[in-house]
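Archive entry: two folds, one per protein. Generate the first.
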Amino acid sequence: MIQVLFVCLGNICRSPMAEAVFRHQVNKAGLDAVIAIDSAGTGDWHIGHPPHQGTRDILDQYQINHKGLIAREVKSDDFVQYTYIIAMDQSNVTNLASFAPALVEGEKRAAIHKLLDFAPDRTDKNVPDPYYTGNFQKVYEMVEESCERLLAFIVEKENL
């Protein structure tokens, strides 16, 4: 099973949006039996909360299921449980280092990427946080495009 974890700051806007969008794409591709998806935040402010209303509204607009999404914080176990950890911005990548356990010899670790690394035509590789900008539509468009390319990358890399 290939496991993908999307990470942002509070796990209520960008990463649950990416989780829901990617899950939708994986299901459409018929790969839900081989790819598992989750999301988490590097901050603990929203643990146990559903996604932000703006995230839920944009997902509803595109008929993408978000039921059952609940914010959680990154755990040290995530680095060995997940195949890929996909951060929304460089700050998230930097913050992930504080959660990473010490490397055990021979242990396989998650590959960490930024989501917009999968959008080669974009010069800014950081997904803006709509919690502050309010621009959920723009973020959705970035997430949707990048998740398509992420899925193609995983399919090729994992020989699915």
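Generate the second and append.
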Amino acid sequence: MRLGIVLALALLTACGGGRTREVRIPKGAGGLGFLPLLVMEKYRLIEKHAAESGVGDVTVRWMDLGGPAAMNDALLSSSADFISAGPPAFLTLWDKTHGPANSVNVEGVAAMTSMPMYLNTRAEHLKKLDDITDQDKIAVTSIKVSIPAIIMQMYAKEKYGPAQATRFDKFTVSMAHPDAVVALLSGAAGISAHFSSPPFHQRERKDPHIRTILTSDDVMGGSTTFTMISTTSKFRQENPQIYAAVLKALEEAQRMIVADKKMAADILVTSEGGGLTRDEIVEVLNDPHVKFTTTPENLMKYAEFMYGAGSIKNRPGSWKDLFFPEIHNAPGS
């Protein structure tokens, strides 16, 4: 299925030689973590900064393509120029393309958001993750490789030892956030818990029967990058001005969200449809745990864990090994 999507995108976007004038960016899986992309699209910020740099007319094609696996395939097949994802999916792709023999070399452009994820439940017997039983199912965006899957593995390793790192994997099922919200609130599909992110977390917590028993910040020991943007070294080398325009557009979008939360909330409500109101989204944006920043946070904790678990073969020396130089002055981790 993914191969068919990628081939279709490749046929639609194939072009001849010369400098790139079209930039192709998937809008991601939705939710607050991808809000900067929506602001960049609505206000044509990439086009603005490209024009200011003297590149000339640049067409930005925002593609409705979500899910880290499909986006990774699109980037590697040159059907997309930039993609956004969480740290585990990014690290997997960085590792796959890492090394001097590889001409692709995917690296991070910048972080996009930092925010917690929340393990929510309505099951009376679940007071903590350790109380899970064979009758329980935990909804996550993707089994084994998503942020919540890795977080639970890190929790298990710390509490039960390296041999038990995957002890909670068997309880997880893959489910998109909107579907998981419905399943948890209704009690359908046997879902007793959902590892959720804003604003889906806030939707669930409006139900008085739902409570939070663990957060990613608890496990990571503080604020952690939730979504980030990456591209290939080939694209950056061949299109330095467009690369710079994308980074500047991201930074401006983040400033706009912080400065005008009602505007940002309206964009998200329009894009997502249903769910929370503008005022409820503004309340989420006012949460100090929700940050829009290009500074990578706690990437190395993910990298160290995934390297130790054998999920990646290359061990970065620092977070700067994962990102292109333009962001190296940030106080990353």
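Annotation attached to the second fold: The domain at 2-115+225-327 is CATH 3.40.190.10 (D-Maltodextrin-Binding Protein; domain 2). Confidence is low (pLDDT under 50) at residues 1-18.
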